[in-house]
Amino acid sequence: MPARNTGGRVASMQGSCLCGAVRFELTAPFDGVVHCHCASCKKLSGGGGTTSGLIPTGEIQILDGEELLRTFQPADGKAKTFCVSCGSNLFGAGYPESEASAVRLTTLDSGLDQQPRAHMFVRSVAPWETLPEDGLPRFGERPT
Ligand SMILES: [Zn+2]
Ligand SMILES: [Zn+2]
Question: What's the 61 CA to ligand 1 centre distance in angstroms?
Answer without folding.
Answer: 16
